[in-house]
Amino acid sequence: MPLSPEQKAEIEASRGQTAQTLRVVSPGMEAHLYTAHEVLDHGFVRVIDYMGDDSAICQAARVSYGKGTKSVQNDEGLIRYLMRHWHSTPFEMCEIKLHVKLPVFVARQWIRHRTANVNEYSARYSIMDREFYIPAPENIAAQSVVNNQGRGEVLEGEEAARVLEILKTDSGRAYDNYEAMISQDGQQGLARELARMNLPANIYTQWYWKVDLHNLFHFLRLRADAHAQYEIRVYAEAIAAVVADWVPFAYKAFEDYRMGGATLSATAMECVRRMLKGETVTQETSGMSKGEWREFEGVLRG
Fold it and tell me: Of 37, 99, 34, nearest to 234 (Cα)?
């Protein structure tokens, strides 16, 4: 269970408090504020704070004193122009602070995005909770035979059952030993900063993660992609749903130009021009390597 009754009560109490403000408020984001969106078996994502909205992006681009006299349509058109031409700094005017509960191995992937501010739960000072990520049966898969960093067919029957039992047993045993090592019942007890080394990578940790919208879009482009690992992708998808309500114009432009768009090299563009003129272009006549040509065909096929 991701949230205890006490945590849910605390969230409801936070949502019940209101304050008058002169700053920009996003109605879509206000609906998400403090609410925990459950992810995986024990994880969640919740918004702690945010700054800005679609109008803040436009304000920064225009360097104006307020929202001005521009229409909503003009704001949307400006945002799409900024996204289309890779003008990133106006998007940096919006920020979001998230509280995330996630497995340690997902956190180690996530932390590679270094353009954010992070403060993680410390196992040096505190005792880790006995919570582990155990995949659902449909997410237990074999190694992919075509992608060294991906998974292939779903494991079934006795092999799947054996793997799940190993994950559960090893996780429990590791935590039992962790508790035994730090216990001060009849012994000094090992320091927490040392005992934590025995914990498995599927144990849950928590952190506060603050990032601007430009760098958040970069995170989502990579981690909400269908090729991303499932366990981090579901977090990215949960965040994306929040962002879509927070800055709808910016998110729609992001979907169109980043998630749904494609970047072509100069060589690829020349091939497109030749094809439009009616020429038959093959990999051998394209000037591309086999890998480049395969990716190019994938873009054309959609």
Answer: 37
Is 223 among the catalytic positions? yes
Cβ neighbours around 72 below 10 Å, total: 10
Give the whole-angstrom CA distance, residue 72 versus residue 64. 16
Q: How far apart are CA 215 and CA 225, in angstroms?
A: 15
48 and 110, same domain (yes or no)? yes
pLDDT tens string 245-296? 999 999 999 999 999 999 999 999 999 999 999 999 999 999 999 999 999 9
Whole-angstrom Cα distance, residue 31 to residue 245?
9
Instruction: Report d(CA 176, CA 187) in Å as an integer.
Output: 16
Please state the residue numbers annotated as binding site. Answer: 89, 109-114, 120-124, 196, 212-214, 218, 223
Question: Structurally, how many domains does the chain consist of?
Answer: 3
The residue from 84, 223, 273, 301 that is catalytic is 223
Q: pTM for the whole thing?
A: 0.90
Do 80 and 108 share a domain, yes or no?
yes
Known binding-site positions for FAD = 89, 112-114, 120, 212-214, 218
Region of 277 please: left (phi>0), alpha (psi -120 to 50) or beta.
alpha
> 63-88: per-residue pLDDT in tens?
865 555 566 668 999 999 999 999 99
Structure confidence by residue, pLDDT tens digits, 194-221: 999 999 999 999 999 999 999 999 999 9
- Sequence-distant (6+) residues with CB within 8 A of 111 are 118
**Structural domain span for residue 287:** 266-301
